[in-house]
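Structure, all two chains, one model.
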Amino acid sequence: MKDLHEIAGRSRQSFYQISVSDINSRNAALLRLAELLVQEKSLIFEENQKDYALAETEQLSLPLLHRLTFGEEKLQQVVLGLKALASIEDPLNHTLVSTEITEGLNLYKVTSPIGVIGVIFESRPDALIQIASLCIKSGNSVLLKGGREALGTNHALAALVRQALSDSGLPADSAQLLETREDVTEMLKEDALIDLIIPRGSNSFVRYIMDHSRIPVLGHSDGICHVFIDEYANPDMALKVAVDSKVQNVSVCNAMETLLVHEHMAPLFLPRFFTELSDRNVEVRGDAAACRIIPCKPASDIDWSTEYLDYILSVKVVSSLQEAIDHINRYGSHHTDCIVTDNQQNASVFLKMVDSAGVYWNVSTRFADGFVYGLGAEVGIATGKLHARGPMGLEGLTTYKYMLLGSGQTMDDMKKGIRSYTHIRLDEDCPV
Amino acid sequence: MKDLHEIAGRSRQSFYQISVSDINSRNAALLRLAELLVQEKSLIFEENQKDYALAETEQLSLPLLHRLTFGEEKLQQVVLGLKALASIEDPLNHTLVSTEITEGLNLYKVTSPIGVIGVIFESRPDALIQIASLCIKSGNSVLLKGGREALGTNHALAALVRQALSDSGLPADSAQLLETREDVTEMLKEDALIDLIIPRGSNSFVRYIMDHSRIPVLGHSDGICHVFIDEYANPDMALKVAVDSKVQNVSVCNAMETLLVHEHMAPLFLPRFFTELSDRNVEVRGDAAACRIIPCKPASDIDWSTEYLDYILSVKVVSSLQEAIDHINRYGSHHTDCIVTDNQQNASVFLKMVDSAGVYWNVSTRFADGFVYGLGAEVGIATGKLHARGPMGLEGLTTYKYMLLGSGQTMDDMKKGIRSYTHIRLDEDCPV
């Protein structure tokens, strides 16, 4: 077990350095990392093969083994990602608002990094590079805890991240690797040194983190996504969107778990949809009305709030748009929910009333992703409502400061009326 | 004790209504409330006088009694505040970013309300109107818990808020009053129904709330504000800013608690400053170097991290700008900190490296306030770094949704290369 207090302390010191670093140094570190990854690829692949061999003997599932693999293809993706990230403009030191408060006293709201961020991620080793590079670009320090299965690969990758930082004149300790669950437990206690925890993983895991730390947590607990087929849906489009939302990849958080269909559309839509699902071996669990139209197992109340991540779908027939919205707000996880309809009024009501990070009209729920949204990459998808919502990229890794530049103004003068508030919007950048 | 689960449930239902309401209804409610307050002022004043009489028999302190008072002057302020708030543009349904993802598929990031917000505030009854009106304007539901001393006044005010909502076609239950500490304890359990708690009060109180709820908390724990007199400070300005920061009002969170002074400036500055403080009966606690220059009690380590809210000041002599910054980042509360200097380079380093919501150059810390910043009003001052930082007004009460408007796009088509990502910035408002 590591001394997490000491590690977090070094993270904090490094944060103060990287937070004021030039964007050129931060970009240089990203490009240097891309170089180092290519240079040292045989070492990385070797470590990854050892991890893989061990995981095989431990009989990890095929999808897990697949996620663990870090070969030439993943390397190329990661290198491209780093170059793309280096070309994006600096997310720091942007003046968001500027206001003259009184004569000679100007207020600037300026973007700044958050601080020390602990990220706990799953077995994909490429996630380490993605997360570390987003934190470097945004001037934050990061504590990285990856999956146990990928430890050797993560060690090799983290060493290169640290070398890239040093080579670019930035503190290597702004990226540090944690190794064990005990490290995570200890990290959760360091609320005076760590500003944010981003856990990626199961619902119960995220809950555990939230219940065991005073550090703010941004994570997604569950992805219970819905598609609602409105009575005014185009049936062909409905079929396409619903099938893609369910089966394009069943094991991801933005896959559909519950289909809602208007009672006027159900007799036409459900039999066609059922045929498509049967062809793909999807088990259907329906409410009484659905079971009268298509052969399916009866759904229990638990089904409506279950994230299957599997070839299972729950189906409910609703009598109105409002019933669909109420069901989603009650049972959903505020991740991503879609309406298929040709009626703009119904779409508008759905988009406004459904209380989710992503509200979609006529498009598969599978589009909920940071790259797809054009954010470059994502550190995670937030289902809470504060700070960041949905796919969380560079912007989610920044906060702001109010910089107030005066010339000796006192509140005493203001209260006595010697000066008065002007509150003129300036639209200028902070000059210091 | 109230049934908080039932109350929070009604808050949530009301949220779904007020969240989609027209801005005209929300503004009408604010103006109607201003009318009702004037109409019913004798009733309010009567209730307030009862509260005051009881508080006197309970021997509340004079400052507390003063805060409790709600008379003609407060009423006029509150009415003016409501009219000003009604004239501000709608914080909801703004498109922040718009992007074409692929042909016929557009993404809009649109501002939306947060949901159900629980606010716990101190004895000032005018705070009830301020908080409730900010929540109405921003389309949120609010659960209000004020100081026990002001219960009668708060009852009268909350009834008018609810009447103003009804009279404007909005759900009265989007503003509900809680009465007891037990109500607060019960409220903290309703994490499935409540989205945010904003506690105003002591550091230990805010900590208590954070430790006893899964609901996200935005609050300020402490206001340990610093003024640093740099070696390049203008001595007259330094004196003005330091005196105002300390004594203009000692009992508020943005008052200075620790003065840091560069060793080259200390022999000149401290004696003059000490004279000013002595005239105002401020007790000074200094480090060894300060005590060699002016007569003062020795400061202990606890002094550096104490929010006195009183006529007491701790003073430390530092040998460099960096030492001042390190002291502030270590002992401060990330609220508001100021440098007095004529050296722009030093100011720039200070503003960038000090990790606080407000970083000031040559101006009193007393300016940290939502009204002063031009935010209209504030629900509180956030010393955390996520979501909202510093004085938190209307913007802090909103979040955003991603609205994705398509025409049947599937991820399957994207993966097969039938369509490709365009990621064109649109700069247009969401059309639905």
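DSSP finds 16 helices and 17 strands in chain B.
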